[in-house]
Amino acid sequence: MTVDSPPAPVQLDTPARPRRIPPAVLLIAPSIVFMALLLGWPVIQGVLQAFRSDEGFTLDFLTRMVEDPYFWPAVRNTLLLIVVMIPLQFAFAITMALLLRSNPRLNKVHFFVWAIPLALSDLAAGLVWLSIFNDRGYLNSVLTSLGLGSVPWLAYDNPTTLFLCVLVAEVWRSTSLVLVIVVSGLQGIPKDYDEAAQVFGATFWQRLRHVTLPLLKPSLQVALILRTILAFQTFAVAQALTGQNFPLVVGETYRWYTALQNPNVAAALALVILVASMLISVFYLRALRDKGQEGTR
Amino acid sequence: MADITISHLVKTYPGGTERATDDVSLDIADGDFTVLLGPSGCGKTTLLRMLAGLELPDSGSIAVGGKDVTYLPPNKRNMSMVFQSYAVFPHRKVRYNIGFGLSMAKKPKEEIDRKVAWAADLLQLGPYLDRLPAQLSGGQRQRVAVARAIVMDADVLLMDEPLSNLDALLRLNFRSELKKIVKDLKTTTVYVTHDQSEALSLGDRVAVMRKGQIAQLGDPLDVYDAPADRFVGGFIGSPPMNFIKAAVSGDGGALIVGDQRLRAPSLLQSYSSTDVLLGVRAENVAVDTQRSSGDVPGTVLVVEPMGSSILLTVEVEGQTIKVQAPPTFRTSPGSTIWLTFSPNSMRFYDSETAMALVAR
């Protein structure tokens, strides 16, 4: 006597299940819609605005932007500021973070004080520095009382001191962002690496170069991208300190939009910043990519 | 290679009240392998870190090869170290990691290459030289850490629980390998561990530490065989030494455990009518199911076969002890067995101070 085994379930001719939207997509859908409406749409509008007039597609606004006498000085000033400011800021931030790591007395207070500029609006920072640098400001008062005479730091015909004032104010205002990122990055590096390097005879500079900075690279990369993009957008501090005397690209955007009432050229300028920021980010990501770790991915 | 002289080293961590090392003095001869052994918090790692220069003592001094290094920064001490966490640099390849100390010292490239190849060969890392640490197993990373330490020609080799992150089998294998490597190097080595079997198997000398002080310093076998106090006996050995409350008879000739009388060794002659602690290792108690002269009866509580032996928990005169029986010994919980303590393996401790008794 044989026992019939139950027929094997046949799945061949069951109809294909209707394609369902994966739950992940459903979950992120609200944010996608939100982003598209509040970010994507304005970006597209802005880009279109730079190229569209009543008669249709045009490059007139771009031409007008480039031919404006303030445009190239603004580009030059912005680039100069970035090139000088970013290395300075990183040097400061890394030094400060290393000082904090050595666990000095009142460690937390130092960190808190150094992070204060982060909480300050940039216009407020600009006004604070204006009260220091203006002709009868704090700096000149001190100089005068020392018998050194006052210096017209913010005079329109003195581009060097104008640049220095904006630089000092911007470094003061925005280094804390780099500091916070670097400090958190340093905290993520186990102490053992530094100790091992010490025992194996590395000097302070060797440790910094061969151990600390390479391990800090991911944080530095984030800080570098953020700071460079934000540096392209430097505006309020320079505006408060120098008005038009030290034009920057975002300041020009603002001038075209408000003073000159031309949103199209303003959009063209904004586009320049957008493209520059994107190019810089791609450049950093590629240049700082960890070549050694590609194999593990 | 150099000898180490540690004298009166005191260290209290900021914010702490207890001394991490409490007036520790220790001499380590050139080429010796010394193990610092103790439970966590006993100050063994602190002592090692002060040797390395990663912590500074409050007082006392450390001399290496006759030169005072107490307050010298770590990179000026010519030491090398294996860290518990390996501390192999994750961003550089194995080759660079092993040669790190040499390249920091700006040694010529050929020399670095030669030594890295030698160390990689010794530790079977040859095929992995061009990998990143992330692509290695834990055991291999540990080997890299050891290779990095041995290429250095350092005066002193420091090891901070180097085997504690490996799994049991790997630890056992690597332990003997490490012993051979260090023996061939002939470098003065200080090794920190909380694992008593590691300490006994590796060390030329073992320093058992407790609460910042060295409780006993000696040969591994001496430390095992004749613990200086109850703490050492209880810490070393698996199972730890048994301690039985006993008293010496009025004439000093007999040891009284409950209702039983044992013949007292001559050491106890001078301790007549005093309470003592009898210390005896599990393997030094002979067991039998039959009574013969001089035996003590006990009731079996637990039987644990260990493979090579059987571990018995036995109640003797109201006190519980662990006894090791041969694997062929058959008994069951509740039955009565007869125990014989061999006079030569009995150790005696003061019942108050828990220190070993000496003839007086």
UniProtKB/TrEMBL annotation, chain A:
GO annotation, biological process: transmembrane transport
Which keywords annotate this record? Cell membrane, Membrane, Transmembrane, Transmembrane helix, Transport
PROSITE patterns attached to this UniProt entry:
ABC_TM1 (PS50928)
Describe its membrane topology: Multi-pass membrane protein
Task: Answer yes or no on keyword Transmembrane helix.
Answer: yes
Q: Where are the transmembrane segments?
A: 24-44, 79-99, 111-132, 265-285
Q: What is its main location?
A: membrane
Name of the molecule in the record: Sugar ABC transporter permease
Q: What is the lineage of its organism?
A: Bacteria, Bacillati, Actinomycetota, Actinomycetes, Micrococcales
From TrEMBL, chain B:
Q: Which UniProt keywords apply?
A: ATP-binding, Cell membrane, Membrane, Nucleotide-binding, Translocase, Transport
Q: Which Gene3D superfamilies match?
A: 2.40.50.100, Nucleic acid-binding proteins, P-loop containing nucleotide triphosphate hydrolases
What terms describe the molecular function in GO for this protein?
ABC-type transporter activity; ATP binding; ATP hydrolysis activity
Q: Which GO terms describe its cellular component?
A: ATP-binding cassette (ABC) transporter complex, substrate-binding subunit-containing
Alphabetical list of SMART domains matching this protein: AAA
GO biological processes: carbohydrate transport
* UniProt key word Transport: yes
Q: Which InterPro entries match?
A: AAA+_ATPase, ABC_transporter-like_ATP-bd, ABC_transporter-like_CS, ABC_transpr_MalK-like, ABC_transpr_MalK/UgpC-like, Mo/tungstate-bd_C_term_dom, NA-bd_OB-fold, P-loop_NTPase
Task: Give a Pfam family name.
Answer: ABC_tran
Which residues are in the ABC transporter domain? 4-236
Task: Identify the PANTHER family for this entry.
Answer: MALTODEXTRIN IMPORT ATP-BINDING PROTEIN MSMX, TREHALOSE IMPORT ATP-BINDING PROTEIN SUGC
How is this protein named in the record? ABC transporter ATP-binding protein
Provide the species name: Arthrobacter crusticola
